[in-house]
Amino acid sequence: MPVPSHHIVPLPPPFGAPPYPADIFAGQTVLVTGGGTGMGLAMAMAFAQGGANVAVIGRSIDKAEAGAARIAALGVRTHAISCDVRWPDQVAAAFDEAERALGPVSLLANNAGANFPVLAEDISVNAWNAVTRIAIDGTFLCSTEFARRRIARGQGGAIINNSAQYIWTGFPGDAHSAAAKTAQATMTKKLARDWAAFGIRVNAIAAGFFPHETSTAGRREGGTEVLQNMIPAGRTGSIHEFGWLSAMTCTPLLAGLTGQVIVQDGGESLRRSLMMPDYVPPRERAEGPWGWR
């Protein structure tokens, strides 16, 4: 059913009106994994709106450079780096390069990830490893590299992880990603405990649907309207409000926030009721396990 016209649908401010001062990250450097496109780019741009210098890392240097150019247009220094976060030597080298170019990394956004719809019994070992190692190993390796450097300097810092709202329920065709994102959320809590005494805060966002140019959300017939009709807030998320919340958790405004997994999904995870559409098993869906192709 379409969202009725009399429903109030709250909208965020436009991208040019971030919810924090333009200099709140002045003099700091953030490293964003997978920051050249999509949700990682939104995170990177949100940090830039607060004045942070931004190191963009990704497996594709072309995408990282393209993202860095868009971020630089906001008036901050940027640097693009090719790095596969599954490998500790590449992660260490990426931090070295970022710090040579932009100064000590005091903020970290773990966004790098991979996902694609596939039934659990059809997931190959390579496919399983491709998704889980980027999210789990990548988050761990980047976070520990970051923490060792901050502890050695005797300075604190902040980490934000991009998780997913289906970590508590799973999602059709997503056994690999659900497992990886759940591990990432648990890791968030553990690392926050380990590093609190060093002034290093660690949080995560369990993100819902934020359609963007590289996402699959909304590609079925009817586009994003189909998703919006399923969400209590009456709409999917705007990608810049995800970026803002990510950056906000790392500001001094939320200095007491650590070890938290914040759900940002417009209430989609709360919509369970007796009045639900008929359930169709993923294998029987005409448009694939995610409901679209």
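^ that was protein a. below is b, sequence first then the tokens
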Amino acid sequence: MLVADDQPAVRAGLVLILRSAAGIDVVGEAGDGAAAVELALRLRPDVVLMDLRMPRLDGVAATRELVDGGVRGVLALTTFDVDEYLFGALRAGAAGFLLKDASADELIDAVRAVARGDGVVAPAVTRRVLAAFSGPIAGPQGAPPPGPVPLGVLTARERDVLACLGEGLSNAGIAARLGIAEATTKTHVSRILAKLGLQSRMQAALAARALDT
């Protein structure tokens, strides 16, 4: 994985925590968004831990470039009160959101979840995003309304998987719920994203939740 944060002390602390965890290999570090993009596109890590407020190229723009370049495992580091970065990262296709005050165990668990292909999001951030998506959002920095979900393009099984995504279930959780293999779940999730024109599980989850509002 790669760690991107413009504060050297914070970045060193994150790297120290992650390197102490079994099965996690930190292959690179970046102090700004431009360096993060260059390194990630070259190294192709499974996970990029991306601070959203960085110089040269902010984390939102960096996330967009990485997702467009095929690096989808971006775990955004965010603060609870900066909506434009949070919603911007959502639009850009971040795989998950983690608050900067997360514990070491929460950080490690989140990185492992994204590496497995699961989405992950801090509960406080989930509530904030869902509250914003439940009504009209004004201004270019706000989160866009989710719009209608074209369910007709999905198979019955894909609709079942989408509903599970809306509940925040992991791939393993969806597989257990629906009685299918985890590999099959991953295939369904990929097809749902492609059919609905979405970039991440989080976007799919919000689209599913919008059906209930």
